[in-house]
Specification:
By secondary structure, the chain is α/β, with parallel strands linked by helices. It folds into 2 domains: 271 residues, Aldehyde Dehydrogenase, Chain A, domain 1 (3-Layer(aba) Sandwich), CATH 3.40.605.10; 179 residues, Aldehyde Dehydrogenase, Chain A, domain 2 (3-Layer(aba) Sandwich), CATH 3.40.309.10. Helices cover 38% and strands 17% of the residues. Helix 14 links the parallel strand 13 and strand 14. Helix 3 packs antiparallel against helix 6 and helix 9 packs across helix 10. Bound molecules: NADP nicotinamide-adenine-dinucleotide phosphate (NAP). NADP nicotinamide-adenine-dinucleotide phosphate (NAP) binds next to helix 7, helix 8 and helix 11.
């Protein structure tokens, strides 16, 4: 292990010993200060990210806004206190046959967290992105492994975080920026004994490698890898009408948005063989053909993989091209292909994510066939249905299958543009993530970095503030089984 990694992990632990004692308000103030410092970086940040990622200005400006709002929202959530899951069961000294003691519980931070920046979201899932924001909110320190594809952008954001730490009077080691760019650095970080959790967004190979490193440790730790998904959409309209045409145009936008480099990109479209699906495929093809070269991809590695992966898919028996946005095999072209349900069911190569603006239409014989093929899919971040709003019976039938495969199920909409809110689930059964019980977007992402601690028979003064009788934080607590903000 390099000295740098070891030193960083030692410092991060030392900083955690102080940071874990901060009040919820201090943590909120830190997150708000980070947002302010990121905004203060101004155009330089956007220009740098544009040069490094090939993403357009409007997209990056929007993503910066989302990132800063996310920091503020997680800060507010910490002082609201729901995440702490404070529970109080008061003593019943005269209970028969045995007295009941006073027992209380509250969530506490688990320790230093390693966060791997994602290439496709230089702000929202990188240096000060969701994993960092949620870990800092929870009271954990962060070791950020910068993504090499946007190192300068990452440095700028890291400088904003450091400024915020200084302005809030906190240790600069609460956030440490790691710039080493080879796999041995990632491995050493995950395997360092001071590290207590890992957050990752990226490839299946990368996410699984981190799990393997963690399993080799003497002490197991949670690894939350978000590894992507093909996000099936089921076209179940009985009629091709204006509303379906609008949804197909929305689908074309979702497939090509950001050159298809989203984990919520639709890579798979199921429909019932017949005129409705034929018209939908034609409309989708027309929309894609008009797009041309959509844009440069994030980095040469992703561009190369995209071309290789779609060529492999198109080489499979029984797969035909419906439309392509340009004739040449260029990185960043939009592509729609088609196959039958029988071919799809037999050939697992067609089930793999193709990271880019590619989608495969699967023609099914009937609804039973479609749902049977759907059941062969692996775990997904999302699944969607396009259907007439009043056909509730079919919706229920499909949803009953979809909730067991997906973290988020959508009726008549697309999954891109993941909202940051309390109800969001950005997660799903394996292999979309390594732990489908948690979300990496939304306030509940904080729950990945805490564990419950039980306090039995404590004097009030010695309890954590969240559990004290007077409820000084004025948070909601489950008191003897009833939610309440009242003092005891
Ligand atoms: P990646 O290859 O998974 O790399 C992401 C980060 O993980 C990098 O910092 C990389 O380290 C580290 N890493 C990867 N494999 C590792 C290993 N075996 N040991 C230690 N560290 C490892 O992702 P990417 O570069 O962003 O893109 C490559 C592919 O990932 C894409 O083509 C796409 O298929 C997929 N992807 C998926 C998502 C998603 O939303 N799920 C997002 C982005 C990319 P280094 O810095 O040392 O290289």
């Amino acid at each position: 292990m390099s000295n740098l990694i070891n030193e960083a992990c030692v410092k991060s632990h030392q900083a955690w010993v102080g940071y874990r004692e901060t009040t919820y308000k201090q943590r909120e103030n830190l997150l708000v200060a980070i947002a302010r410092e990121i905004e203060a970086l101004g155009d330089v940040l956007i220009q740098t990210a544009m040069e490094e990622t090939n993403l357009p200005q409007a997209r990056l400006t929007g993503e910066r806004g989302r990132t800063c709002n996310q920091l503020r929202a997680y800060g507010k959530h910490i002082t609201d206190g729901y995440w702490a899951n404070a529970c109080i069961d008061t003593a019943i000294p005269d209970r028969q046959p045995l007295p009941k003691v006073d027992i209380r519980k509250v969530n506490q931070p688990i320790g230093p967290i390693v966060v791997f920046g994602a290439s496709n979201f230089p702000f929202a899932y990188s240096t000060a992105g969701g994993d960092t924001a949620s870990a800092l909110a929870a009271g954990c320190t962060v070791l950020l492994k910068a993504h090499p594809a946007h190192l300068e952008t990452s440095r700028l954001v890291a400088s904003a975080i450091t400024k915020a730490l200084v302005s809030e009077g906190l240790s600069e080691d609460i956030f440490i920026h790691i710039e080493e760019t080879d796999f041995s650095a990632g491995k050493a970080l995950v395997q360092h004994p001071n590290v207590k959790g890992v957050g990752f967004t990226g490839s299946f190979g990368g996410g699984m490698a981190l799990i393997k490193y963690a399993q080799e440790r003497a002490e197991p730790i949670p690894v939350f890898s978000e590894m992507g998904s093909i996000n099936p959409v089921l076209i179940l309209h009985e009629n091709y009408d204006e509303s379906l045409e609008q949804k197909i145009n929305q689908l074309a936008g979702a497939i090509t948005l950001g050159v298809g480099q989203f984990c919520t990109n639709h890579g798979l479209i199921f429909g019932l063989k017949g005129p409705v699906l034929d018209k939908a495929a034609h409309q989708l093809g027309t929309a894609i053909s008009k797009v041309g070269i959509i844009g440069k991809m994030l980095h040469p590695g992703i561009a190369k993989s995209y071309v290789q992966n779609y060529q492999t898919a198109l080489d499979q028996n029984g797969v035909e091209v419906v439309a392509r946005s340009v004739e040449a095999d260029e990185p960043g072209i939009g592509l729609i292909a088609k196959t039958s349900s029988a071919t799809f069911a037999e050939n697992k190569k067609l089930h793999q994510e193709i990271f880019g603006p590619y989608s495969l239409i699967v023609e099914c014989d009937d609804l039973e066939d479609l749902l049977a093929v759907y059941e062969h899919l692996e775990g997904q971040l999302t699944s969607s249905i396009f259907i007439e709003p009043e056909r509730h019976d079919v919706q229920k039938l499909a949803v009953a299958k979809m909730i067991h495969k997906s973290g988020r199920v959508i009726i008549n909409g697309v999954p891109t543009g993941v909202e940051v809110c309390h109800s969001m689930v950005h997660g799903g059964p394996f292999p979309s993530t390594t732990d489908g019980r948690f979300t990496s977007v939304g306030q509940d992402s904080i729950l990945r970095w805490v564990r419950p601690v039980c306090y039995q028979s404590f004097p009030d003064e010695v309890l954590p503030v969240a559990l004290q009788n007077d409820n000084p934080l004025n948070i909601a607590r489950l008191v003897n089984g009833v939610w309440s903000t009242a003092a005891i």
